[in-house]
Structure formats: C-alpha cells, structure tokens
Specification:
This protein is an all-beta fold and about 120 residues long. The chain is about 0% helix and about 55% strand. It has no helices and eleven strands. The strands form two sheets. Strands 2, 4, 5, 6, 9, 10 and 11 form a seven-stranded mixed sheet that branches. It has a four-stranded antiparallel sheet with strand order 1-3-8-7, with no helix packed on it. It is globular, with a radius of gyration of 13 Å. The mean pLDDT is about 95.
Length: about 120
C-alpha cells in the first residue's frame, strides 16, 4: 500500500523558516518524481515544488523560488521541503504528492498545516 506521511507543519512568524518532511512507503521511492503542493482554505491548489528521481533537478513556481528548497533522501525514502522567509499568508495545508504514469498526481499524503502569522 502506497503511503505518504507529511510532518513538520507548525505556526511560524513571517520571515521564519520551517522544514517539512514526507515519509514514503509501499513503493520504490527512487523511481518517482515527487512534488509538494499547498492549499489555503477557500483557495485553489498550488504546486510549490518538484524534484527529479535522483534529486538532481528541481522546479519551483515564481511565488516560492529562492525561498523554498525541495530535496530527497532516497536511502531514507523521505522527501523534504525547506521553507525560508515565509510570508504572512494564513494557514495552508501542504501535501506531498507522487507523480505517477502520464505525469498524473496519483498519490497524496494527508497534509500538514503551516500557518504563517504574527
């Protein structure tokens, strides 16, 4: 059974940093591109990062580029998202997502909440 379990969400002040983790199990982690996405209450889903199978290539939207860093440890089957200089954007749920066949987002974690507020 494929499982993605996020952790590390918290309340943080604007300008602060946070690192999220996603523990993967039930599949061969290094065979898949992985992404992070977030969703604020009442808003649409926003993709915030993607990382290649070997971790050598990453991508970010303009909204987080230069502030967020995605990484992975294939030996530990774990995906990370380092977030720096967080903006006061209210609460958002951050999801770890596997990219499956045909570039589909086929498995999602349960999410971890990040709130940036003073």
């Amino acid at each position: 059974e494929v499982q993605l379990v996020e952790s590390g969400g918290d309340l943080v002040q604007p300008g602060g940093s946070l690192r999220l983790s996603c523990a993967a199990s039930g599949f061969t982690f290094l065979d898949y591109i992985m992404t992070w996405a977030r969703q604020a209450p009442g808003k649409g889903l926003e993709w915030v990062s993607a990382i290649s199978r070997d971790g050598g290539s990453t991508n970010y939207p303009k909204s987080v580029k230069g502030r967020f860093t995605v990484s992975r440890d294939n030996a530990k089957n774990t995906l990370y998202l380092q977030m720096n200089d967080l903006k006061s954007e209210g609460p958002a749920e951050y999801y770890c997502v596997r990219v499956g066949l045909g570039a589909s987002f086929d498995y999602w974690g349960q999410g971890t909440q990040v709130t940036v507020s003073s």
